[in-house]
Structures
1.
Amino acid sequence: MSTTADRQKTIFILGATGYLGSQFLVLLGRKSLGYHVVALVRNLDPEGKKLGQLRAIYEDLEVVEGTLEDKEVIEREAEKAKYVVNSASSDHPASVLAVLAGLTKQSAAHPGDPPLCIHVSGLGILHDKARGEFLEESAIPRYSDIGFDLAKLDPDAAHMNCDKEIAAAGARKENPIRTITAHPGWIYGVGEGITKGSAAIRVFLSVCKVAGFMGTWGPGYNAMSTIHVKDAANALLTIFEAALQGKADEGAEGHYFLSTDGPYVSMREVTKIIGDIMFKHGIYSQGGTQPLPAAATELFGESKRPYSVIWKVGWHLMGGNERVNPQRLKKLGWVPVETKKLPLLESLPAEVEVAIQEQNVLVQKVL
């Protein structure tokens, strides 16, 4: 991949085997745009099973072994691919800086033809500090992605550690990088890619395992926007295609809210359904939902442990509200088809079944 032609037709993807990343690959494959994909994959097996799984959903693909900690690998691959899509983590500064370092080198080597970085963040960056308490709608801030400015947000907000680096790279004049940050709401639904179930459900099951019942951070009146994984992946593809055509907003204007106009779903509603399903399976001794004890919530917030991203934003993400107006995707003609067909609360039973099955598989592997 040393020629200009190869660079122009190569996409480097972080998170290709993940929930959103593999769904994006599914849709990219259906489009047949003719791009070669390089995927960062950890723990490659000698039998080539992961490569086979990835090529089953996207044929023109190669893998490089590495984790988000392998800065040299990430920087090297980012330097060679004109397009980078990072759906691996919203809160891993080292990998983001490695991507930007590689793209900076590429930009310097190809003046006038800057590379493109699409980074997946999240709407958790906008969450208030409601701590699960009920607030009137008029008291909850509302944001539009048009005119959105990171400088006006809490510097300690979720995802800010990575988003500010992306924004700075997109604003500079020397060795420029075209940057776009996608901010999805709660991504849900059973995916078609390699990872079928949502990370959000896995987080709840892990935390609530400590309590022995399903619960909320505080009373759980906080509510957020949602988006089906197929719509979220389609939004990424829509943004990517618009960028190829020079029609996407980038740099300072390159913030896209991946969301719908509502309805907003409260944590009480979500966790009640999950709790009832877990009770039905005999996993919990009681159904429904109630506020979680500190022993559970401290796994993701407000303990005395040394600093970590999870420690800092647990209550912020799980106990906050967010209200948004996703205008930029509407300008591109994007419509959340799957989200309208199957809302989150209707999707939860199937998602929880997938999560239970995944956990059972993991237990069997350990044993």
2.
Amino acid sequence: MPILPPSEFTFPDPVECDPEGEGLICIGADLSPSTLFEAYSHGLFPWFSEGDPICWWCPEPRCIIRPQDYHPSKSLLRSMKKMDYKITINHAFDTVIRSCSLPRSYANETWISEDIIQGYSALFDAGYAYSIEVWENETVVGGLYGVNIGHGCFGESMFSTRTDVSKMAFYTLMLIGQENQLPWIDCQLVNDHLLSLGASTLSRQQYLNSLQDVVKQPSIDWKKYQDSVFSSKTIAQWASLSA
């Protein structure tokens, strides 16, 4: 894993500077790979509207999902076995993050600006971000992207243009998390959709305590997965990834 140069910025302790648990920790800095690495290593992530200054958050409570506790629905498994989608890892990061940046049916705006895209793309090139893609023929129809530092896996966003395909990418991430014995995958903010997938919460202090241990562990060997193309039919049974 490449070593990034030290960040020019030092982030404050979230608990000390935000005792009320409102979540906003600080404003400023940049979105360079070193700064993003420093922020995630200390429990912060950027979230702001285009044109606004960069805002760094560490919410109370923290939404996480434990891969070992995740169980896909029977309907999702039926869909994966029925449809002949292909699933890849780290084959089309730019396509995924740009697809995630598009406005949704329930919102006209997106927080994934061009600056965010450039920052996370550079982090991907440095080896600290990942993407999972679901393909229909030669088109990416769903997927997700996130950050990985040690055993810390941080989900950022997902998208789909076909029924259940973002859930297929999410299930693939859970399987990777299970195989690598990740204690949790960070989902950041609580929402009903994540809770429906099996997410739960940790207090901010519990999350930060756990984070300091997991980021010191070996990182996921993404090359193990990215050299292959998987069928949704076989991924549903974990046979392809566990071989």
3.
Amino acid sequence: MLGIVTAGIAPGLALLSYFYLKDQYGSEPFSIVFKTFISGALLVFPIMFIQYVLDKENVMQGLFYEPFITMGLLEEFFKWFILFYTIYQHVSFDEPYDGIVYGASVSLGFATVENIFYLFANGLEYAVGRALLPVSSHALFGVIMGYYLGKGKFSLESKWKWLWLSLVVPVMLHGSYNYILITLEDWLNLMIPFMIFLWYVGLKKVKKARLMSTKHFEDNLLFEKPFISGK
């Protein structure tokens, strides 16, 4: 049991640590990141219940609805909802890169609990595959969501466009991941290039968010200098 729990938690914590330590302008308060992680973990239970009801009632089932709506949209919307209503206006969200940290945190909280449940049901031999595919993909969906939330918060214009993209882009990527996994017999042949693409996009967003944070702090420093110097 301990081995399964450890294997279920380890990849999520490793990925969260990676994105957390990439924050170059002061790490986010651990307590806020932890609460966001736990919020994502708790999301598993209502989402599993809703998905169970939809499946039993045969609602929104099919080649499109299941991967994109009952899985992709449902899961990403709840993550987005938590980020927008608990983190977006929080005082700790004070630079664009913070969106990456909080987006990864809520997604990896969800992925970690989901991963533990899967390993209990199917066995420890799936731990490596789960770490490389579902856990990593959830992390990257969260990174991309957080990137657009950060861009929306600190942009002077088109805020609602970025907020809209912060939901739509992860939903489409998540749906595409599920579609490959559920509908294709030779899914691995397409999943490998898809994951390479997802990592490329995610790491590119990380780099862009770091550059936006650098500009954000430089602009703030220039604004504060006249007041500091007494001019």
